[in-house]
Amino acid sequence: MLRPLGTCLVFVYTLLLAFVVARAQSTDDGKNTFRFDTFGDEQLWTDTLQMQHALVNVSPATALAVGLKVDVEALPSSVTDALKTGQVDLTDPDVTVQLLKLNAVVGVMGKVVGANDTLATVGITCALCHSTVDDSFAPGIGKRLDGWPNRSLNVGAIVALSPTITDKTPYLSWGPGKYDPRFHIFDGINVVPLNSPTVPVVIPPAYGLQGVGFETFNADGPISYWNRYVGVTQMGGHGSFSDPRIGVTVTQTPDLVDPKLPALLEYQLSLRAPAPPAGSFNQAAARRGAGIFSGAARCASCHIPPTLTDVLSGPSPTVPFLHDPSEIGTDAVYAERSATGQWRTTPLRALWQHPPYFHDGSAATLDAVVDFYDRQMSLALTSRQKADLVEYLKTL
Questions:
Q1: Could you report the per-residue pLDDT of 247-273, keeping only the tens digit for each?
Q2: pTM value?
Q3: Where would I find the H helices in the chain?
């Protein structure tokens, strides 16, 4: 018996509404995971690195100086009022503990216990490296910007605070905005060397990933592959990861990472690349630059619209299309430590927001990027063409 049309439409609408609600719930779960879930990585940051002993000696001023950020929306009005009037001593390490107690330090979860406010445990979340703040309250203090790479974060200097690390030199060599995910792994008990010497790369943005495919520098795998690798072997989460291609296997039960990956992926895919600020580029020059991008500069031959990468342009969508280091003039050492040994064409998203450029940060500006490829590809662009191309890149 056929249902009346109205009944069918109501049924379809109900299904669509249920889907939208479920997806919104999944995105909210992923947001909470991204911002607040340590996956049990206190086993690294507390038990092994003993960062709880180091952070009690770190003042807010020092924390801000190494790029840690404070979520102003996590602060009660009494605290923000005191900050505005200079009644908070930012040189006092005890204030750092109070900020951790308020869950206000972006990407750092600290458990503060007892009448004396003892910092008992420390863990980190995805947001440590892949979020920043808008500085709306003060430099380093503002509303969260999830997915934005924290290019002022000096991860190496923070790790080097650990009282259990004897050779701090490799970590201190990284500098702000860089991290080496191929330097070591954590196996649940020990920090195990993986490659030497250290070769840090810039922290990439985690926004604008929808439809890109094989999202890491070397296209080792999709987003959840990398989330699992980082969550387990780098953050120190309690979970399992295995990839014979790079000789890494870590097994821990229960797995606190894997069940969170679907919702985390949903949230990451929802993060849109930020638009360039009004007035930040010359519109007429950018229009000319768009023609140069697809014409004389030959950028669009690899940076294929709409994702501005060619990683999915091969014969199989399950196999990434990649480039040898010699082809694009990049250092081969980091690529050799990856699972593919090659490079993916970087999708050009919100370039205005995250200098420096290239995996190693060797190009400080977009002008330097254009100059590099002009030499590498023997383009012979004029000064005017280069300038127009740069203005177009600012719009992406």
A1: 999 999 999 999 999 999 999 999 999
A2: 0.91
A3: 5-36, 42, 51-55, 60-65, 77-84, 93-101, 127-130, 155-159, 169-172, 223-229, 261-270, 283-294, 325-328, 332-336, 366-376, 383-393
